[in-house]
Amino acid sequence: VFAQIVRAPEDPILGVTVAYNKDPSPVKLNLGVGAYRTEEGKPLVLNVVRRVEQQLVNDVSRNKEYIPITGLADFNKLSAKLIFGSDSPAVQENRVTTVQGLSGTGSLRVGGEFLAKHYHQRTIYLPTPTWGNHPKVFTLAGLSVKAYRYYAPSTRGLDFEGLLEDLSSAPSGSIVLLHACAHNPTGVDPTLEQWEQIRQLIRSKALLPFFDSAYQGFASGSLDADAQPVRLFVADGGELLVAQSYAKNMGLYGERVGALSIVCKSSDVASRVESQLKLVIRPMYSSPPIHGASIVAAILKDGNLYNEWTIELKAMADRIISMRQQLFDALVARGTPGDWSHIIRQIGMFTFTGLNSEQVSFMTNEYHIYMTSDGRISMAGLSSKTVPHLADAIHAAVTR
Ligand code: PMP
């Protein structure tokens, strides 16, 4: 019965790793995947996470019972505080409903399905470009996907005029997906002044902001600074959605731990929204997993663990920033033609190099360097040892 099935294409991002794994070269370098690596190129489990895990394992009072459909209550409360701030009026007034999700992706999907079912405008505007999974997640959730301009290839920066123009002409009520910080794949974020203009436009047109927060703390190293754009929108009292991921900032990738928060106008509305979120979640996966959320809750709850976490988080962010500087310096030292200052200007895990797909193929074939065909490289996959190899490859690709 399945003989007619045609082979689906490899996921464009995860496919990079598949190709990398097949390459026997000792100098091969995987800059495709968006996961943090140490200077030694190894995955990192944070010390604070290891310690909390030990405590959880040793605590015999813990069991493996199902947790509620909406997840661990502590985890949800603490996640809302983390993104909105502990003094957030929306949190204090109980106007926020937060449910635990299967990392960022699952939280986006639940938010999308909720909107498709209960919101009057089923169109979501995504930035061009955006994380490759966004259009698929929201289309399958039942929303219709449209685009707004975001990135200007000519400046390798923000197309602010284009963004404002496109959001101005979006039908009133449309949903707008915004990357809270460290835009993937471009590494280009609006300034706080630009965010304020975006906020005014979104509110004046009654658009509904849906923030994707996959990199809080990873962009600047400060959890509060990276949450500023979201908090700007909460401060005006309007509604919004936020999907949070703990994949990057706590290194909990495979634990699939995240949260969806919906800020409402009153606590009564928030509780009705939550009752409907349960109906979205229950037939999808019934209830979320317990382990990752227990780790996060333990860290967020305890002042010492929290401080320890912020120190380890800042170290990851700083290493990435240092990789940007080293790569930039290496290209300048080689006299590589072109302006490479965007490497140090862009923010977060990725640099959108501006290399085209042909140059990317050349670098893969000749230098065994793997990245997505749009020229996005993960700065977290680089180390002081591998920067020269990458700089040589970029130099060769652009001077060919
Ligand atoms: N949104 C963006 C912009 C991302 O880059 C990612 C991770 N690549 C995610 C969401 C979701 O990741 P996860 O489901 O692993 O939390």
UniProtKB/TrEMBL annotation:
Cofactor annotation: pyridoxal 5'-phosphate
GO MF term set: L-aspartate:2-oxoglutarate aminotransferase activity
EC number of this enzyme: 2.6.1.1
GO cellular-component term (any): cytoplasm
InterPro entries per the UniProt record, alphabetical: Aminotransferase_I/II_large (IPR004839), Asp_trans (IPR000796), NHTrfase_class1_PyrdxlP-BS (IPR004838), PyrdxlP-dep_Trfase (IPR015424), PyrdxlP-dep_Trfase_major (IPR015421), PyrdxlP-dep_Trfase_small (IPR015422)
Gene3D superfamilies (alphabetical): Aspartate Aminotransferase, domain 1, Type I PLP-dependent aspartate aminotransferase-like (Major domain)
Main enzyme class: transferase
Keywords: Aminotransferase, Pyridoxal phosphate, Transferase
Physiological role: Important for the metabolism of amino acids and Krebs-cycle related organic acids. In plants, it is involved in nitrogen metabolism and in aspects of carbon and energy metabolism.
Other remarks in the entry: In eukaryotes there are cytoplasmic, mitochondrial and chloroplastic isozymes.
Family stated for the protein in its record: Belongs to the class-I pyridoxal-phosphate-dependent aminotransferase family.
PANTHER family tied to this protein: ASPARTATE AMINOTRANSFERASE, ASPARTATE AMINOTRANSFERASE 3, CHLOROPLASTIC
Protein name: Aspartate aminotransferase
